[in-house]
């Protein structure tokens, strides 16, 4: 140990490398696991309505089209409050604002369990979208406070592994609750929504006390590590600002053509993401008449396990090569083609395999994609630009589930709706490949 210290004293490059390694390690182990846990809870609370539908739809006489609407209306509320919420977080800090988001969405998610009609569900799901607005883009913005461009795809991908993991963990639990929890004569789908709402409130209170706003507020970094990280991030900000003829502020970010292009790309992939999350339990249930809700839960895990593995491997390779377009576009294309084929097969095992390719295409898209806005956005421009991309893109979460429900009511089959989703994912791949990107900014230790 003393030899290392002497080497650092005589060799500034060794000292800088040592600080870099220790700082990145601390940030990865202290920040990422906690916000990862928060996102698991967020995903669970917004998509568990898909499992509740296995018994809720019959009890409340909800049609496929009505279910598609109540699943997707969440994103209308989300869209309306997304940008103001992200700008508020940039102003008041992540600790206070993320805590507020968690507590409010936990309370409203609990109230969903009290619904007695499709209209009640429309109202509560819309309010849930308002309450949760700003969480995801706030977390993407938050990661830019802690990670350089070169590490962002991997950091975002780790954070977004919460998407498949929430389903991997939540699917069997949700299926088991539906089959076994009928306490006090209350329907199991109500218990499902109520029980899974509680972690958001608990974590919201914890977040207020333990989440640092920025590196300078942290207690786990020492003074040297804080100075190194601040210097690295400041150099990246200057490079982005110097590359712009005029700084991109909040207003200009909202009018920026590249921001809107990325929003369009994100819309097409989100059509796939939330079609998968909301409709997969019902699609799997339809593969066999003998499946229990618990068995459906375990089968739903399979596509998400494949998506999780692909997300990790592809994001790691994207960061290593600093290539983004092919890493996002190729999986999206494969997933889209799989959905075009799934309606033509009659084997449950093959259907699950094709749905796994869909999950692969969706989940592995996000790490490379979310490294793109930070090539040209900084500061308040990043806060508003990321929020715009996410809010406009998430309208795909309304379109996909609703179109599947409408098509199912008219045709009696969910598979033409899945074909629509497959076409959307292929369009996403084409849009990504049509993008013109400059060379990624290089960050070197000084």
Structure description:
The structure is a single chain. It contains 23 helices and no strands. The protein has 446 residues and is an all-alpha fold. The protein has one domain (17-434): MFS general substrate transporter like domains (Growth Hormone, Chain: A, Up-down Bundle). α7 runs antiparallel to α12 (188-195) and α16 packs antiparallel against α19. The longest helix has 29 residues, at 257-285. Mean pLDDT is 87; it is low at 1-5 and 439-446.
Characterize the biggest β-sheet. none
CATH architecture: Up-down Bundle
Stretches where pLDDT falls below 50 for ≥5 residues? Answer: 1-5, 439-446
How many separate domains?
1
What helical percentage do the residues reach? over 70%
Q: What is the CATH top level name?
A: Mainly Alpha
CATH homologous group name: MFS general substrate transporter like domains
Mean pLDDT rating: 87
CATH topology: Growth Hormone, Chain: A
* Cα gyration radius (Å): 22 Å
Shape: globular
β-strand percent reads under 5%
State the separation between the terminal residues, measured CA to CA. Answer: 24 Å
The ordered string of helix (H) and strand (E) elements is HHHHHHHHHHHHHHHHHHHHHHH
How many helices? The count is 23
- SSE class: mainly alpha
Number of strands: 0
Summarize the structure.
With 446 residues, the protein is mainly α. It is built from 23 helices and no strands.
Compile the SSE list and pairings.
Blueprint: H1 2-10, H2 12-30, H3 32-47, H4 49-59, H5 64-72, H6 74-92, H7 94-112, H8 118-132, H9 135-144, H10 149-160, H11 162-180, H12 188-195, H13 198-210, H14 223-242, H15 250-255, H16 257-285, H17 293-321, H18 325-342, H19 348-363, H20 366-370, H21 379-393, H22 396-411, H23 415-434
Helix pairs in contact: 1-2, 2-14, 3-7, 3-10, 3-11, 4-11, 4-12, 4-16, 5-8, 5-22, 6-7, 6-8, 6-9, 6-21, 7-8, 7-9, 7-12, 7-13, 9-21, 10-17, 11-12, 11-17, 16-17, 16-19, 16-21, 16-22, 16-23, 17-19, 18-19, 18-23, 22-23
């Amino acid at each position: 140990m003393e030899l290392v210290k002497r080497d650092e004293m005589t060799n500034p490059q060794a000292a800088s490398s040592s600080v870099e390694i220790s700082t990145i390690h601390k940030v990865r182990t202290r920040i990422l696991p906690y916000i990862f846990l928060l996102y698991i809870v967020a995903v669970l609370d917004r998509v568990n309505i898909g499992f509740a539908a296995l018994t809720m739809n019959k009890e409340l006489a909800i049609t496929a089209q009505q279910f598609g609407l109540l699943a997707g209306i969440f994103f209308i509320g989300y869209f309306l409050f997304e940008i103001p919420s992200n700008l508020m977080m940039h102003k008041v800090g992540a600790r206070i604002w993320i805590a507020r988001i968690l507590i409010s969405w936990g309370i409203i998610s609990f109230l969903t369990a009290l619904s007695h009609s499709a209209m009640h569900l429309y109202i509560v799901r819309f309010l849930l979208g308002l309450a949760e607005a700003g969480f995801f883009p706030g977390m993407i913005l938050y990661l830019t406070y802690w990670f350089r461009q070169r590490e962002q795809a991997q950091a975002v991908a780790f954070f977004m592994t919460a998407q498949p993991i929430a389903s991997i963990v939540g699917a069997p639990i949700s299926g088991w609750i539906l089959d076994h929890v009928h306490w006090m004569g209350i329907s199991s789908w109500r218990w499902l929504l109520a029980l899974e709402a509680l972690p958001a409130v608990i974590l919201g209170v914890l977040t207020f006390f333990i989440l640092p706003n920025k590196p300078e507020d942290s207690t786990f970094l020492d003074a040297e590590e804080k100075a190194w990280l601040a210097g690295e991030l400041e150099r990246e900000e200057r490079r982005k600002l110097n590359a712009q003829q005029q700084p991109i502020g909040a207003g200009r970010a909202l009018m920026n053509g590249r921001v809107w292009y990325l929003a369009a790309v994100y819309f097409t992939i989100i059509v796939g993401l939330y079609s998968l999350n909301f409709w997969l339990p019902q699609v799997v249930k339809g593969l066999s008449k003998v499946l229990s809700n618990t068995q459906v839960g375990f089968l739903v895990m399979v596509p998400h396990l494949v998506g999780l593995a692909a997300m990790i491997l592809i994001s790691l390779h994207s960061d290593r090569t600093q290539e983004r377009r092919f890493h996002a576009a190729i999986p999206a294309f494969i997933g889209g083609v799989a959905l075009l084929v799934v309606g033509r097969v009659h084997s449950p095992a093959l259907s699950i395999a094709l749905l796994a390719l869909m999950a692969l295409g969706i989940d592995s898209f996000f790490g490379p994609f979310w490294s793109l806005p930070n090539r040209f956005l900084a500061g308040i421009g990043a806060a508003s630009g990321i929020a715009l991309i996410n809010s406009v893109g998430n309208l795909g979460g309304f379109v996909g589930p609703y179109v599947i429900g409408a098509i199912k009511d008219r045709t009696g089959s969910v598979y033409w709706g899945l074909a629509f989703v497959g076409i959307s994912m292929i369009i996403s791949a084409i849009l990504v490949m049509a993008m013109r990107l400059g060379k990624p900014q290089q960050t070197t230790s000084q």
